[in-house]
Amino acid sequence: MRHSASAFGFAFNATLDILSSFIVLWRYSNAAAVHSAHREYIACVVLGVVFVLSSLCILGKAIHNLATREPPEVDDFLYSVSIVSGITCAVLAVAKFMLGRVLTSRALITDGFNSIVGSIMGFSILISAEVYKDHVDVWFLDGTIGVLIGLIILAYGVKLLVDMVPRVRQTRNYERFE
């Protein structure tokens, strides 16, 4: 779907989800550092920076679509991918939230947040496309959803940075890694 802010956001979020999963894997890659607060905080700061950067890209695309009044276009392939991805991301989000709670890992919970945003984006593509089919005058729904999701990701990224940067500074002298 080349003219959809939600689809662009969804694709960007899928890339972000892969990147955030790699960050969480890095966080737990060193057996000696499994309980490392410093490593946890670094992972959260990196996730915060990635969230802020991706939100700016999603917001830019969504605002561009609203400014140029581009309506969404959905084909059957994107429709089926949206359904499968929406469900898969929701299941992954629940698993990540549960595991994050057990491990008390903010990085893993943040990764779960990213997966739930991916699920919402997948379903929002379907909703905006179905609404547009019946009501052409609601062309702006897709771009508006893209702006909303971009703002949510931006807020979460900024909150992560505000919470975690001071913690990284506090713990940097306590733990050394190879």
From TrEMBL:
Q: Does the keyword Phosphoprotein apply?
A: no
In terms of domain of life, where is this protein from? Eukaryota
GO MF terms here are:
zinc ion binding
- Which of UniProt's keywords are assigned here? Cytoplasmic vesicle, Endosome, Membrane, Synapse, Transmembrane, Transmembrane helix, Zinc
Q: Which GO terms describe its cellular component?
A: early endosome membrane; synaptic vesicle membrane
Q: Where are the transmembrane segments?
A: 6-29, 41-62, 77-95, 107-127, 139-162
Give the family per the record.
Answer: Belongs to the TMEM163 family.
Protein name stated in the entry? Transmembrane protein 163
Q: Which organism is it from?
A: Eleginops maclovinus (Patagonian blennie)
